[in-house]
Specification:
By secondary structure, the chain is mainly α. Helices cover about 80% and strands about 0% of the residues. It folds into two domains: about 170 residues, MFS general substrate transporter like domains (Growth Hormone, Chain: A, Up-down Bundle), CATH 1.20.1250; about 210 residues, Growth Hormone, Chain: A. The longest helix is centred in the last third of the chain and has 39 residues. The protein is globular and about 75 Å long. The two termini are about 40 Å apart. Pfam families: MFS_1 (PF07690). It is a multi-pass membrane protein.
């Protein structure tokens, strides 16, 4: 009789695994492409600014976007936890498309400042919202790879934005009385609006919802399974009030939120090389400006490949801390080489080290934070927004910039080691409590 029961259990487990694979495949064919394309346009729209600004005007116009971006992220994720994502996120995308396209009609410094601030406000919901959606559907062993795929939208936008702009300027500059930069805003704004509209019909809502594409995309059994596996993936915790304000309180009061904030802030600060990487490449004096721009692409593409390999390994081995700190050590080596020599070959090689190291670690930081601060859905929504908010906060060697990025990389490595130590201690406590109560503990990811 017991053999028969074991066989039945095996059949049930196999059927559940097949259903889970089918569920993840459906998400990869719907949610992932939607958020990737929208993130691609999000980054393209955010970085299009070509109005002939001079001096400090350009820096202010670029920076003012971050003011609106920071102000709106936390309120937006608090709203998202209570509304339909399939409407809210695409609606925000349609708004930013319109605001970005309207930049084509701006001809004054005051106008561009106003538009850029509003653009930051309407773009702010997307990244933390998209990541929160992924963490609502994907369990710990799946999340890092999909976050890296989403993050690759930024990389592709960085690599191809110059090529797209060159094509628009070459073919449309002066057409119908509009300058090339005006056509650039109009075309990219129209493209993102179109895809955002389609997203409303493709993007699912939360697993427990029976609205959006989930009505026809998932069976009742698949919906129940998605809820169960997310519940199993949560770290063991006492039953808590799941209201959004209580979730905000839990996120703010948890010191680990601030450690992750420092970790991601340091990581993003070290990633600041992205703002002047073309200037670094120009310092190689390898060829024309076109050749220089082309030479920046391989480092980004290799960095993307490295990030996929790292997150695949991180998910497979269920480990986060070493997969963040080890790549950052390579980034530090790259920064050291850059400030230590003027050799073109050595500095070009060094760019692959710090681009690959920082791309590889960034996505894993997000997933580690979401997997650790997930005692309730409301806490996860607020905590991931807080962490993301805090992360925003000399040629030819660029010595000062490189030294700062080395320091920030080192800080990020230290926070990884600290967090890994703290969570290992917390897991031991959870295991002791599990032995006392007889209930299997769900542990923090390390």
């Amino acid at each position: 009789m017991s053999e028969q029961n074991e066989k039945l259990d095996h059949v049930d487990d196999e059927a559940t695994r097949r259903m889970e694979q089918r569920l993840v495949r459906k998400l990869d064919m719907t949610l992932m492409p939607v958020v990737w394309v929208l993130y691609f346009f999000n980054y393209m729209d955010r970085n299009n600014i070509a109005l002939g600004l001079v001096g400090n005007q350009f820096n202010v116009a670029v920076s003012i976007l971050n003011v609106g971006y920071v102000l709106m992220q936390l309120p937006s994720n608090m709203i998202l936890a209570k509304v339909r994502p399939s409407i809210y996120i695409p609606a925000c995308a349609m708004l930013w498309s319109c605001v970005s396209a309207s930049t084509s009609a701006v001809h004054s410094y005051g106008g561009i400042i106003a538009v850029r601030f509003v653009l930051g406000v309407v773009e702010a919901p997307f990244w933390p919202g998209a990541f929160y959606m992924l963490s609502s559907w994907c369990v710990f062993p799946e999340l890092a790879l999909r976050t890296a795929i989403l993050y690759s939208g930024l990389v592709v936008a960085t690599v191809f934005s110059g090529l797209i702009a060159a094509g628009v300027f070459a073919g449309l500059d002066g057409a119908r009385g509009l300058a090339g930069w005006q056509w650039l805003f109009i075309i990219e704004g129209s493209g993102s609006f179109f895809f955002a509209f389609l997203a409303m019909f493709i993007c699912p809502d939360f697993p427990e919802s029976k609205t959006g594409s989930g009505r026809w995309l998932f069976s009742e059994e698949e919906r129940k399974l998605s809820i169960e596996r997310i519940a199993r993936d949560r770290v063991s915790a006492p039953k808590a009030d799941e209201s959004i304000m209580h979730g905000l309180k839990l996120a703010v009061m948890d010191y680990r939120t601030w450690v992750f904030s420092l970790m991601l802030c340091s990581n993003h600060s070290a990633y600041g090389f992205n703002n002047f990487f073309p200037s670094i490449a120009k310092g190689f004096s390898i060829g024309s400006q076109t050749v220089t721009l082309v030479l920046t692409a391989p480092a980004y593409l290799v960095g993307t490949v490295i990030s996929f390999a790292l997150v695949f390994s991180s998910d497979r081995n269920k480990e986060r801390g070493l997969h963040i700190s080890v790549p950052l050590c390579f980034a530090v080596v790259g920064f050291i080489i850059t400030v230590s020599t003027l050799s073109k070959a050595a500095r070009y090689f060094a760019s692959f080290l710090y681009v690959g190291g920082l791309f590889g670690s960034n996505a894993i930081v997000y997933t580690w934070a979401a997997s650790t601060l997930n005692q309730t859905p409301a806490k996860r929504a607020c905590a991931t927004a807080v962490v993301n908010i805090m992360s925003q906060m000399d040629a030819p060697r660029y010595i000062l910039a490189m030294l700062l990025m080395m320091a920030f990389s080192a800080i990020s490595i230290c926070t990884c080691i600290y967090m890994k130590t703290v969570l290992r201690r917390a897991n031991k406590k959870l295991l002791r409590e599990g032995e006392e109560t007889g209930i299997k503990a769900s542990l923090y990811p390390l």
